[in-house]
Amino acid sequence: MNEARFDFAGNAITQLCGVKYPIFLGGMAAISGPPLVAAVANAGGLGVVGGLRLPPLTLRRWIQETRALTDQPFGVNLVPQFGGPDVFEAQFQVVLKEKPRLLSLFYAEAYSADMIPRAKDAGLVVMVQTGSVELAKIAIAQGADIIVAQGSESGGHLNRGTIGIMPLLTSILSIAEGRPVLAAGGITNGDDVRALMSLGASGVVVGTAFIATDESNAHPLYKQKIVEATTDDTEYRTGYSFGWTYGTPHRVIPNRDKWNLLRFIGGGARAIDKPRMAKKLSLYAGQGVGKIHSVVPAAERVAELVTGLPMTTSLFERGDAYAAAGSFLLEQRRPLGWQ
User: Fold this and answer.
1) In a 10 Å sphere around its CB, with 0-12 CB exposed, 13-18 middle and 19+ buried, how is residue 182 labelled?
2) Are 23 and 203 in contact (CB under 8 A)?
3) Distances in whole angstroms, Cα of residue 147 to Cα of each of 103, 130, 211, 230
4) Which neighbouring-strand residues pair with 23?
5) Scanning 70, 159, 277, 311, which has the fewest C-beta atoms within 10 Å of its C-beta?
């Protein structure tokens, strides 16, 4: 029964995705580029390329650049709803051809009944991020391998986004049918990881904490705002954000300059953007931002998160959630040939 023993509670995820730790980088648009993805992967986590808005040729280049920087598994995040079916299909074809280890999907409900089987047939692990039990049930019915419970504490865009991570995580675990469930929202350090994995999460997805890293594509002023913000500084909004349908919920550090009209717009400032964008936009960030005090190498951020992993614990000692995840993993590996 050695196959069923966990080195730590997230081992269902590490076996499924071929990584050392169940620490996932959020696939943040423009921010999660090849240097950051590779740095997280080389540190033992799973880096995820932010594919949102990337033209197919650029997406292919980013995947190839990531491969040049790491020989470890990584993933690609796509948002099918963003840009329409033709744009998504072109991106999807790139992913099918390039074959990263994992395809991460967000706002995918209208497309995933067709898309998930195609991705799995190509040998990809499919992860779907959801903000409600209803959306998790849809993803499970459509064949997702991994569900991400995205709590309302998360920065950036939220899929439904009104439920905190603790009630959402435990509710999704109860209907997950043995699938591993990752937690997302306000996670910045080992204490956060420990708390959520004690509730049954198989791992975590982290975004805001990786914005403030040396390798992220964020503008230096964006990184500075992350470091300077307090826990009280984020705001939940349903207004306008670049390219999204008006009313899509998102969380930002608001710009309070009343003479600045760009304060009403949520966004993420890239390193290549003019300083004006970083100074005037309300910038995406999660509620854990107050615990981020410096810009550090991504490997250091991973190492801090890893301190929260419950080490050397049998899946049978961890309880039903982990036992079910282990059983699901063993059943899924056989037909798909995962090693």
Assistant:
1) buried
2) yes
3) 12, 7, 23, 30
4) 204
5) 311
The model's pLDDT over 38-58, given as tens digits with 9 standing for 90+, comes to 999 999 999 999 998 899 999
SS3 236: strand
**Per-residue model confidence (pLDDT) at position 152:** 96
CA-CA distances (angstroms) from residue 218 to 104, 276, 302?
21, 14, 18
- Closest Cα partner for 130 from 101, 154, 113, 114? 154
What CATH number was assigned to the domain covering residues 2-216+294-336?
A: 3.20.20.70
**The pLDDT of residue 310:** 84
Among 169, 288, 178, 180, residue whose Cα is nearest residue 227: 288
Dist CA 331 CA 312 (whole Å): 23
Residue-level pLDDT at 100: 98
What does the pLDDT average to over 155-173?
92
Spatial CB neighbours of 146, under 8 Å, sequence gap ≥ 6: 13, 16, 125, 126, 127, 128, 179, 180, 181, 182, 202
For the segment 104-130, the average pLDDT, to the nearest whole number, is 92
Q: Where are the domains of the chain?
A: 2-216+294-336, 220-291
